[in-house]
Amino acid sequence: MGVNEKGMYHQIVGSDGTTSIMVQEPFIVTEENVQASIALGLDTNRLHQDEDYAKSLGFKGIVVPEAFLGARVSGFVSRNFPDGVIARSKEKTDFIRACYVGDTVILRLWYSERYTDTRGNEHILLNFSAENQKRKTILEGGCVVTILKSLREKLGMG
């Protein structure tokens, strides 16, 4: 296990004996995060603005917009690859549980498969998840990251 400015890195071993690297990044959701998401028009649902309304629907308070969490995941993926190298295609996120202001969220990212297509572009299948401070899953999903052959060559990546 190692640490750098991006978070904690762990080597994980799959049931088939293959190894992968997992990176994780914790952050605390703030009221400012929610307000910025609303100001950007990412999600203006009353659930994200009106505590009484959210509580009347059975939530414990204002719910953090899924768009904010999705943007954090997208940024997390991008920060863990060299600048300008990736093109993300196919992303799927399942939101499982509400997230609230003040929650500590731990994003995790790991790869499950890597292959090169007939044109020389590299594709990496990534999985990601997020848990709150109670270790309850908030979201999980996956995406395909493509590293174009021309960019790999330009950056000396093979």
Describe the overall structure.
The protein has 158 residues and is α+β, with helices and mostly antiparallel strands. The chain has a single domain, classed as Hotdog Thioesterase (Thiol Ester Dehydrase, Chain A). It is 22% helix and 41% strand. The chain contains four helices and seven strands; from the N terminus they run βββαααββββα. It has helices at residues 31-39, 51-56, 66-79, 149-154, and strands at residues 2-4, 7-13, 19-28, 86-95, 104-116, 122-131, 137-147. The protein has a seven-stranded antiparallel β-sheet. The two termini are 27 Å apart.
Describe the secondary-structure layout.
Elements (H helix, E strand, L loop, with lengths): L1 E3 L2 E7 L5 E10 L2 H9 L11 H6 L9 H14 L6 E10 L8 E13 L5 E10 L5 E11 L1 H6 L4
Antiparallel strand pairs: 1-2, 2-3, 3-5, 4-7, 5-6, 6-7
